[in-house]
Structure formats: structure tokens, C-alpha cells
Design a protein that fits this description.
Strands 19-25-24-22-23 form a five-stranded mixed beta sheet, covered by helices on one side. Strands 13-17-16-15 form a four-stranded mixed beta sheet, with no helix packed on it. The chain is built from five helices and 25 strands. By secondary structure, the chain is of the alpha+beta class. Helix 1 (about 5-10) runs antiparallel to helix 2 (about 20-40).
Length: about 425
Amino acid sequence: MVSYSATSSLLSRDYSMDTDWEMVHEIASEIFFTIESSEESSSRFTFDDLSDAVLVSTPTSQPKMPIPPISVTGGMLQTIELLDEVYLQPPLITLFEGANQISKDQLIIEYRVKNRYSLYPTPDFGPFKILSEKSSKYPSYNAKAMGDLNITPGVKLFNIESVKYSEVGQESKITLYVDDFDGRKINYPTGEPVSYTLNPIVRIVDDQRPHVIVKSGNNKSSPLVVKGKLGDLFDDPGIELLDNYYSQKEIENYMGYSIGAHEGVFGFVNMEVAGLYEIVYQEIYDPSGNVNIPASRWVMVEDDEHPEIFLYGSNPIYVDLNSSNVFKDPGAFALDNLDGEIEWESGRFKVFVEMLTDENLQSYSSLTSTLKDMIEIAKAQDSVNATFRLKYEIRDNAGNISQSYRQVVLLNSPFKFPTITLNGESPHY
């Protein structure tokens, strides 16, 4: 039996500890030590000793419960919890995320599924692990007791081997257990240590995005080249999908595609207008809800066909220098594979005047004057000895240039001025 004087003496000691918890811990330890010593002492008494016992009267004043000690922390008085509350702060296990998420209540641990397709560029993490140190891949844990006492090495793991990571959606419950007897040195009255148990569920998830493989035209510097044509539509050669877990067919079925994954394309290739186009394959989801990484295809609509020029009027064309009529170019039109019909009135034709400089070589030189100016000059001359031609030039929208020529023959009639010819004799009787 513990005497009042021993207990009173023990509780009246001045405990100057660094923290409130250390003070409570020391009080509790010494109380249990005193109890243990008293039990050991009582075992040495016999019934013969009782004959020599001395009667001790009970003190008149009853002892009072000791007042919990106080400490000053940060300038504020804080009352240490009563001894009965020693057991109310069990150890704690905290989980930390690796590459995957952990729910806020720490009851769900997500873990990446095993790759089904080895060509997928990002590897999986292998069988499930939970580590005692933080990792960028695997979940981890930490355990503390009595404030900041690290008891992580004492955590015991159960049922880890039951986690199968080869199937999305598979769930397994694991157990993490720790007690703090080595640090606390006190068990519950039942003999059980003060402990903490965490039973999270490991859920296998797919967090990887499908990749789009574009085999032709995946680079702007080397686009897919197609030949432009009026009324034609771009025929997409298709794409390949590479996912860590799902096949291309599974993804296409999930997206509701009827002819292929290239239905998920954004952009337009105008086969009637030559030029460089970019189309993007995006918004393609796998059944786990992961959206693809956008991929581009570059398409060059090519036009290497030259427009064909047709001349209105005759070729050659004859101009009478003594005529009062004003020369007017009858013009031309052109047909192009993409631009279609190009009319004379479009203003896209260029006309150049050239003069024959070497009849044997049939070489011409360009003139800066217009044909109208040349005709006016020729009319003022008694004789004209020159050959001219008109060069018609047209450029389509792709830059293809075509040329056509019309020869112009200037005629000097034998009568430069109006002449009256009399029929019959003159004078006429």
C-alpha cells in the first residue's frame, strides 16, 4: 500500500522540465516506480511482524489533490493536462503521396496500373510499395508519438502482398500499425500498448495519357504533300494510338469513332487552295478519362500545274495604219486546275509589247511603250518595217506562270491619204 506521505512528497517535488509533456511523463514514471517499490517492500512483511506494529492515528486534515504544475510558453500560461489524460495522445501515422494521390482522409491510396503495352514511353512503377521515406514514385508514411518523437522505424505493415497492380479498379486493404511503448514506457491498465492502426485501401488507377502517332507530316519542315484539285476533299491517312493500358480499338469504341481515331481532328485542309495547313488531333480520351497529348500533322496542298491561256480574236491580228479605227486588244482568258476560269476583266493578266530584233533568230526585245503608242508612231511614217507581238502573262495563286503570244501585223495601205479615182474618161461628154 502506498503511504500518503510518500505520494505527497513525490507530487510536491519541483519538476522543471523543458516541456509540459516531459513533466507529466516524469510524474507518471515515478508514481509507477513508487508503486512497484511499495509492492516489493510489502512482500517482505510476515504475520509475526504484525505483532510489533504500532498504531498510527489518521491525520485530521485530509490531503488535497495536487494542483497541476504550470509552465510559461511564449509568454502565455498553459496548464498541463491531468495525469488521466496521458493516454489521450496516442501515436499517429501520416501518409504522403508519391506519384499518385492519397485522399484527404488518408483512407484511399491510388497507385499506377501495370503497363499492358511495352512500347508505351513511360514505364510503370512495378509492384506496389509503401516506404518509410518520401519518394517521387511510391507512397510513404511517417509515425510520431508524444509530440515529435519519431517512431517510424517501429511501423509494421500487413497485407502488402495482396495488392495486385495489373488491373485498373482493383482494391486491396492494407494495415499500418505502430505503438509507442519504447518511448512512453507505459501501457494501458489492461497491459495493451498505446498504439495506432491505419487501414487504407490501395486503389489501382490509370493516370497515363494516350499518345497519338502521326507517321507522315508530323514535322512542319517535312509536310505531307498532296495534289490540289477542285471539288476534292482531303483524305486523312489516319493515326495510331499508343496507350499504357487500353488498345486503340478500345479507345475508338469509347469515343464512338466509326472510321478511326483521326475523327478527333481539328482544322481543315482546303484541297482547292494551294498552301501549308496544320491539323491537330486532340480531345481523344481513353476509358479512364485521360486525354491525349495533342499532335499535329502538316499538309502541303501542292499545285504545280500552269494555267492555260486562250486568246480572244485572231492571231495574228492585222492593223491598218491608215485606218481611223482605234486598236483595241481583244484580250484573253485562262483555265487553271485550282483557280478555275480566270477572265480578262479580272485584271490578273499582264501584257507586254515586244519587237522583233533578229528575224533569223526570231528574238524579240521588250518595249516600254504600249502598242497604242507604237501604232501612232507608225502612222506618221511613210514606211513601216517592223514586226511586233503581244505577250500575255498570267500567274495562278500557287505562283505558276503561263505565257502566250499574239503577233501584230501593221499594214501600210498604198494610199496614205484619201484618194478619188475616176471611172471613165475625163472630161466626160
